[in-house]
């Protein structure tokens, strides 16, 4: 497989109660309880962009606010491969999967600051706060291993504070 991995950032955004923001993909509106319908904010890193800058840009683009502070950065780039049926179709057909730098962030705003309606083509159509341990069960199968790592490695940030 000659295709490269797409470099991305991901945000595990914790509220004051230690819950994590998850958002429902707008292209899967009937996926309320189905794995893969809900995910964490994530997105590509622009050429030359620092991942710590990219994570705030992605939050602003995807959930309408960057009212947060970084509390941790995962030390590893986490990768997933697309299933064979999606290679050449998903991610613009240019990548075999994604290589992601994940950040734990503390949300500094209010729920009203989260706005999915600011983008004319929103990626998400709903959001909610979830327990960190729920993440793997919400993820589509090929992303589940990454969500398992995040649930384990960022568990210490899930305490109310």
TrEMBL record:
Keyword Cell inner membrane: no
Domain (Nudix hydrolase): residue spans on this chain: 4-152
Intervals of motif Nudix box: 43-64
UniProt keyword annotations, A-Z: Hydrolase
InterPro entries per record: NUDIX_hydrolase-like_dom_sf, NUDIX_hydrolase_CS, NUDIX_hydrolase_dom, RppH
MF (Gene Ontology): bis(5'-adenosyl)-pentaphosphatase activity; guanosine-3',5'-bis(diphosphate) 3'-diphosphatase activity
Role: Accelerates the degradation of transcripts by removing pyrophosphate from the 5'-end of triphosphorylated RNA, leading to a more labile monophosphorylated state that can stimulate subsequent ribonuclease cleavage.
The family this protein is said to belong to: Belongs to the Nudix hydrolase family. RppH subfamily.
Name by which UniProt lists this protein: RNA pyrophosphohydrolase
Species this chain originates from: Roseicella aquatilis
